[in-house]
Amino acid sequence: MFTYQIIIIIISILAISFSVKKYYENNFSLATFVAWIILWIMVIIISLFPSITTHIASMFGLGRGLDALYIAAIILSYYAMFKLYNKMDKQRKRIDELVSEIAIYNNEHEEDD
Description:
With 113 residues, the protein is mostly helical. The chain has helices at residues 3-24, 30-48, 51-59, 65-112.
């Protein structure tokens, strides 16, 4: 086993323990928790058996396993950006609604004075 594999496994185990802690502190939903656990288990499996990436790459017509990892990382990054954008847009709409309600409330109470 190479040094980088040991380091990746240690980091993955730490990330799993961090995810468990966040889940029990109610900072993660169940779906988020499961997604992170699956991701880190996959990282551990790939670090233990790096030849898996070569087989996956050949299924998609790619030359090397590292190419498959890069493409998967890019796709996951775009997915994460899309999810974050949607959450930010939803949050912006909620803030706009709240500001409107506060303005209406303040306007109604100024008229009473």
